[in-house]
Amino acid sequence: MGADVVDDTGQGSAALAGIDLLIVVDISDVKRLGALAETVRRLTVPTIVIDHHVASDDPAGDIVFADTSACATGELIYDLACELDLAITPEIARSLYAAILTDTGAFRYSNTTPRSHAIAGDLLSRGVDPEEMYQRVYASAPAGRVRLLAEVLGSLGVDEQCGVAWLTMGAGSLERHSVRSEDLDGVVEHARSIAGTRMAIFFRDLGYGKVKISFRSTGDVDVNQFARRFGGGGHVKASGALVAGTLDEVRDRVVSDAKDFLGCGPTGR
């Protein structure tokens, strides 16, 4: 975040009072705004959405600039900056590069395109240091994250016949290891990395009767379609959902449904 940006996150809904424009990025459904969702729904000022997720029936704004073929919302913001002839400073270039780097899994996922590489190349010419970005994004984890990862990997479940692999994290784990929710990025990829896995799932107990779920897939499996069964959504190969219930109940139900979705459950055999 630049020095000219004021972070009013702590004020919640109060921070939106008196604004004349709201821009929502990287969110296709207003419910993903959590506690701010109802406040945003009641706004009478123009609300612009810049996003690359599959559209929902309840968008976060009335003006939507979206492209599901974009590898990251950062790609769309880069396009806007170029179209409006805005200056892309080294600081802005680093932010856009980080968005593209993380959403493509360091240019490993199937959403990596020739254009995403071309944009990254342009951002490098504008002052981005790739080694510095690697260090900041992928090589600055606290020791607690590695300990937590070891704990989560110990929960690994695999159904090799169906091609489903899942990981589970109990409530209070973040606090116990002194890490943040941001440190969980990429955990589900360990399940997806198992040979033969078509769908990988990461269950995180939030501790108040809700379980946050991350879905990843390979091949032609559409986890966005699957996540919509549980009120979630996202991308074809990367989606999420928030489901009410205990961790065990949600995990057992979702894994069973995943097997059925993949054609090897009770109704798929």
Between the first and last Cα atoms, what is the distance in angstroms? Answer: 51 Å
Give the oligomeric state of the chains in this entry, treating copies of one chain as homo and distinct chains as hetero. Answer: single chain
Proportion of residues in β-strands = 15-25%
What about the largest sheet? 6 strands, mixed
- What is the average per-residue confidence, as pLDDT, rounded to a whole number? 93
Number of strands: 9
Report on this structure:
The chain is built from ten helices and nine strands. It is an alpha/beta fold and 269 residues long. The strands form two sheets. A six-stranded mixed beta sheet has the order 4-5-6-7-9-8.
Produce the secondary structure layout:
Elements: E1 22-25, H1 37-42, E2 47-51, E3 63-66, H2 73-83, H3 90-103, H4 114-125, H5 130-138, H6 143-153, E4 157-159, E5 164-169, H7 173-177, H8 187-192, E6 199-205, E7 210-217, H9 223-227, E8 233-234, E9 238-244, H10 247-261
Helix pairs in contact: 2-3, 3-4
Question: Would you summarize the structure shown here?
Answer:
By secondary structure, this protein is α/β, with parallel strands linked by helices.
